[in-house]
Amino acid sequence: MSDDHLARALGPWRNTQAPLSTALASALREALLDGRIRAGSELPAERRLAAALGVSRGTVTAALDRLRAAGWVRTRHGSASTVHLPPAAAERIAPLSATGEAGSLVDLRRAVPAAPQELYLEATRRATERAGPLLAEHGEPGPGIPELRAAIAARYSREGVATLPEQILVTSGARAALTLLAAHFGPRTAVVEAPTYVDALQVLRHAGARLVGCRVTTGGWDLDQLRDAFATARGHLAAPCPAWPSSPPGTR
User: Fold this and answer.
1) What's the distance, CA 20 to chain centroid?
2) Of the four, 40, 108, 116, 208, which is 20 to 30 A from 202 by CA?
3) What angle do CA 104, 105, 109 make, to 5 degrees?
4) HEC string of 191-213?
5) Per the structure, how many domains does the chain have?
6) 249 lies in a domain?
7) One domain, residues 14 and 86
8) Mean of pLDDT over the chain
9) Which of 57, 90, 123 corresponds to the end of one domain?
10) How confident is the model at residue 97 (pLDDT cuts 50, 70, 90)?
11) Are residues 164 and 180 both part of a single domain?
């Protein structure tokens, strides 16, 4: 691991009243736990790491000594130091079961390895450069960025719904879009799935709509009930959520 990469992974670790060596040890430990630093990675030499972090070599040595004593860092004579999860931190928990008998612990740590930091930074740089003209604006223009509206309209058209960019209104999220629709149409009745996106229910109830539910099972919609629900709503409004539970309506 390069010293620059490690410095970025640690983030603003000095933002504490603790001694520098204690703060550095804590930052290294947290970065290892949440995946910013991968277990087994080699640390830069102490002198290089001290220069990259802008601290004395003594501070780095003290921090590594603290981690080494607790099992977070291992050092072999004549080789680089590597970071590791000590047994207590790496202990596996029992898998969740249908009966809920999984013990008293649930592992809420990240289940993915560290993000490819260099690729992420490069993608961010490209996005910032391409968004240059927007930086002079006070916010997103009106109904949305023209290029985005054109891309959305093109996708709808490819999927069989002829759409023009002028017909697209980009909002800050699914709830905002549904709130606008409910305010515009003022539906007396709305068809919703059960289960569905819970915010959709709140928005429609706030608009005064009576909700008509349609069961959704692992096999999909109950088509007979869906037909009856549409008949009951009499064309007022339907808010299906085909991407649920992975995302709210309109986001995929």
Assistant:
1) 31
2) 108
3) 165
4) EEEECCCHHHHHHHHHCCCEEEE
5) 3
6) yes
7) yes
8) 81
9) 90
10) low
11) no
